[in-house]
Amino acid sequence: xxxxxxxxxxxxxxxxxxxxxxxxxxxxxxxxxxxxxxxxxxxxxxxxxxxxxxxxxxxxxxxxxxxxxxxxxxxxxxxxxxxxxxxxxxxxxxxxxxxxxxxxxxxxxxxxxxxxxxxxxxxxxxxxxxxxxxxxxxxxxxxxxxxxxxxxxxxxxxxxxxxxxxxxxxxxxxxxxxxxxxxxxxxxxxxxxxxxxxxxxxxxxxxxxxxxxxxxxxxxxxxxxxxxxxxxxxxxxxxxxxxxxxxxxxxxxxxxxxxxxxxxxxxxxxxxxxxxxxxxxxxxxxxxxxxxxxxxxxxxxxxxxxxxxxxxxxxxxxxxxxxxxxxxxxxxxxx
Length: 335
Known about the structure:
By secondary structure, this protein is an alpha/beta fold. It is 45% helix and 16% strand. The chain folds into three domains: 1-49, 434 Repressor (Amino-terminal Domain) (Orthogonal Bundle), CATH 1.10.260.40; 57-165 and 295-323, Rossmann fold (3-Layer(aba) Sandwich); 168-292 and 327-333, 3-Layer(aba) Sandwich (Rossmann fold), CATH 3.40.50.2300. It has 14 helices and twelve strands. The strands form two sheets. The chain has a six-stranded parallel sheet, sandwiched between helices. A six-stranded mixed sheet has the order 7-6-8-9-10-12, sandwiched between helices. The protein is elongated, with a radius of gyration of 22 Å.
């Protein structure tokens, strides 16, 4: 049965965000009692209620959880999935994996299927297109249907659910300050994910550590050719002494551009990347990298979800867990 009114429509009538409406309907302590009362009164007036099929199905458990991965080609998400599978197996849970391929439409299709109630909970890393277009109603629908949800990695969204990710901002702030203590002042950043929440946080961390705004050097684009040209400028024209790479693509591009322009790593250029350790070790020279502990993120995400499924944290506000990263020094930051 279709709702007489949607969360989005309620939010528009009240002139508040969808997030506020969802939180108010679930008695979140983040929302004032007055606003909760307004939301519930309007919801009652319009006979708003969650999908009855989903609600009925939640009375019994399926022993299955759904996992939405944005990009399986990314080794980080592959390792997160490995951690999810390991922890789910210990909990006696089956895992159904879906790949959104960074597509909003595909993510919407998947979440619509999951609201039918055949899974006990959902783990999701939000797609790139969803973040770019800022269309989140399908995610709020999962919450509205009382399906436990945990966001992992890409958690920069005001959704009233448990979240787990790394400290993206401090990871690059600490890396920048470390380079500065070694006497390096001209530090740049290369990124192909500047438009994503995690990318923005990494840029912010780098920027926080700079002593002056004129020291800000960035090569940013999601288009390979544009990123290539901007990276060449950083290395050849700006002659940065060190460069932080926020993702796999930018890390590999920096290495390629350094080789093409006869820039020696680490003699002429220090490099720190967000890259899988197994890859970092086999390059020449090996790349210093930020260890994100993806397997641990996957295991902890399942732990949070199981606690919600089993009502161990019933009534408690959403939990936001942060995995501390570690800078692993390899040959590319040799001093």
